[in-house]
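User: I need a structural model of GtrA/DPMS transmembrane domain-containing protein from Apilactobacillus kunkeei for a docking pre-check later this week. Nothing fancy, just the predicted structure tokens so I can convert them on my end. Input:
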Amino acid sequence: MKNLWNKYKQVIAYLFWGVLTTVIDIAVALVLYHLLPNMDVFWNTLIAWVASVLFAYFTNRKWVFESKANTVKEYITEMISFFLGRVASLILEEIILMIGVSIISENNFDLLKIFAQLVVIIFNYFWSKLVVFVNHKEK
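Assistant: Understood. Predicted structure tokens for GtrA/DPMS transmembrane domain-containing protein:
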């Protein structure tokens, strides 16, 4: 059992913090909605997205990928590449949904959204593992 835990510890931590990231996104959006009901949905969503991506960055760097970056330049490089990956996954999701709706139909939007989210989760994990938190592992 311990070998199984050690083998999948990073993936389990990634999924755990990912769920909390989703909660942060929803919570920020709802708080903004209730405090500033006239705020445009675009700005509400953007602020919630930035807050949740910041949360994801710090939790992923500390508890998922255990980054060893310790200079300001390394932190900034990590953060920029993390945000670029999240922007790329947002675009990827939009492309999947647009193509899916045009090919399959809007009647299956719920399934398309779930599929797109699974692709995004996998993309974000590997982007973080192979691009963002790869350069400073051991010093």
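Before docking, keep this in mind: The chain has a mean pLDDT of 93.
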